[in-house]
Amino acid sequence: MKVIGLTGGIGTGKSTAAEYLQSKGFAVIDADQIGRDMTADGSPLLAVLDELFGPAGPYGREGMEILSAPGVLDRKAMASLVFSDDEVRYKFNEIMHTAIIDEIKKKLSVYEREGKTYVLIDAPLLFEAGVDTLCDQVVLITASLEKRIERVVSRDHMTREEIISRIKSQMDDRKKAALSDFVVDNSGSLDDLYVELDKVLDALK
């Protein structure tokens, strides 16, 4: 079984690339989805997050609730807190990454028993979380800054300043590229992306 890591920052089109590779036969492990499942309503992890990042917690902000109701995460409030403070973001990522990696390992074991040939780990923070250590090779999706901003504005209705703040909070693409086996520039059309991904598939095979 070959494990391929797929990564790329906000607005690069990484999810589109993952969907295409899945259509080509890859089993996909979505790290973001695992994170969302772990913070779903009623999850036991929410009590841990509230204790640390709630208004009374050591990483919280006075008067800022991260739960909109008992057992319900206010994702917008949590994101606002995490992306406004490096120390808070580091602690939050430490907790989430540990839990996500454990779940990824479980899924990899299942796929190996099922005899899968190719497994894709789709993770925006692949290197930051240490998920790359589980991969045989890594594919990085990049795009120009303006193209990334354009995509996110139309998709998430975030402001330009919010998007740039998110981008700056992630590892620089040049550092990611140096650690990756394949770099795909997705600044062009959808067809351009598919052509480049086909080249990666040929190289993997």
Summary, kept brief:
This protein is of the alpha/beta class.
Features:
205 residues, alpha/beta, Rossmann fold, 5-stranded parallel β-sheet, two-stranded antiparallel sheet, 7 strands, globular
- Class inferred from helices and paired strands: alpha/beta
Tell me, briefly, the overall form: globular
So what's the CATH class? Alpha Beta
Between the first and last Cα atoms, what is the distance in angstroms?
Answer: 12 Å
Low-confidence stretches: none
**CATH fold field value:** Rossmann fold
Could you spell the SSE succession in H and E letters? EHEHHEEHHEHEHHHEH
- Major sheet description: 5 strands, parallel
Q: In DSSP terms, counting alpha (H) and pi (I) runs of 4 or more, how many helices?
A: 10
Indicate how many domains the architecture comprises.
1
Rg, Å, rounded: 18 Å
Approximate helicity band: 40-55%
